[in-house]
Amino acid sequence: MAAFWTEADWDDHELVQLVHDKASGLTAILALHSTHLGPGAGGTRFWHYADPQGAMRDALRLSRGMSYKNAMAGLPMGGGKAVVLLDKDRTKTAAMLAAFGDAVNALGGRYVTAEDVGASEADMVAISKRTPHVCGLPAEEGQLGGDPGPFTAMGIFLGIKAAVAHKLGRQDLDGVRVALQGCGSVGGGVARLLAEEGARLTLADITAARARALAAELGAEAVTADEIMATSCEVFSPNALGAILDEEGIGRLDCRIVAGGANNQLARREHGTLLAERGILYAPDYVINAGGIINVSLEYLCRQHAEPCDLNEVRARIEQIPERLQSIWRESDESGLSADVVADRMAQRLIGRG
Ligand code: NAD
């Protein structure tokens, strides 16, 4: 592996640890970007990487992203992320999860883990047998923790309303056309909330039957995954994959606003400027999609301090997402800088790197 400090994504990370446990076969990278605001919180990705460089890039980029996301969500948490390098068959064993839990525990609470791609609630439970520094554990109805999807969806829905108010000067969503990409946990939740407020939805999913079923439930239209980005609408809401906003993707858009939950929507930094040049209002992904991390972080903090958890506190914090977006858009309008650049600068200031 080439030295990671020569990586473009290296950003003065506080700690990057390579864990190799021969007995279980676990290979993992734990990256702490910043603990300026509190313990570095961010999920663990279980993935088969074609080469270790890809795993390192993910750990570096995703942990920095968590620093920004947690700071902008007003959480007393820093940014961290772990990746577990799986074999081609994606073998994940109890022994590997135990060894991973030990590695998290050895950091003594500087890193707090949670679910990410390839992880399940059951994995978090297994990890929690070895360390208390884990969140996203199964929750009873009405309790904190569990599936972050509905909380993420709530924040995105509120963010879309704020974007419509800012860009279109409208306080309601009646008849507002939204093209939504990805009808999974987050996208499905966003679509249902939008439909309740009278938005006119066009839906797409790579699993076409999923989009069709949701469209039938909500009285919406379904189109193919290839068509959704070019659909004429006021709001394009990406809730599937990252890196969809490149020259080609942005060129296809026929919308006034991009606001959705997918992580890392901009393929590269300059694509935020390209969106702004096209007059499209962008809701920085890590600001609008923070509902889930707000939920699991509060679950963790309550458990750590043995305090009762309050769902109203989670809701109140998610309700602050629109305000944060508005302050980004205002500064963007005043400075002429694109919304993503403004958001990054705000986040950097919050983590003491302004
Ligand atoms: P999910 O797996 O439940 O849903 C993703 C959906 O997107 C699936 O239905 C999938 O078939 C569809 N999809 C995949 N590729 C597609 C394509 N090219 N075109 C159209 N549809 C496609 O995942 P999720 O939890 O809903 O997460 C969605 C996005 O939001 C991801 O980028 C994730 O990183 C991000 N995110 C999720 C959360 C959360 O709380 N779950 C929090 C923050 C960010």
Automatic annotation (TrEMBL):
InterPro entries: Aminoacid_DH-like_N_sf, Glu/Leu/Phe/Val/Trp_DH, Glu/Leu/Phe/Val/Trp_DH_C, Glu/Leu/Phe/Val/Trp_DH_dimer, Glu/Phe/Leu/Val/Trp_DH_bac/arc, NAD(P)-bd_dom_sf. The keyword Oxidoreductase applies. Keywords: NAD, Oxidoreductase. It comes from the Bacteria. SMART domains: ELFV_dehydrog. The keyword tRNA processing does not apply. Residues 146-354 form the Glutamate/phenylalanine/leucine/valine/L-tryptophan dehydrogenase C-terminal domain. CDD domains: NAD_bind_Leu_Phe_Val_DH. Belongs to the Glu/Leu/Phe/Val dehydrogenases family. This is Amino acid dehydrogenase. The lineage of its organism: Bacteria, Pseudomonadati, Pseudomonadota, Alphaproteobacteria, Sphingomonadales.
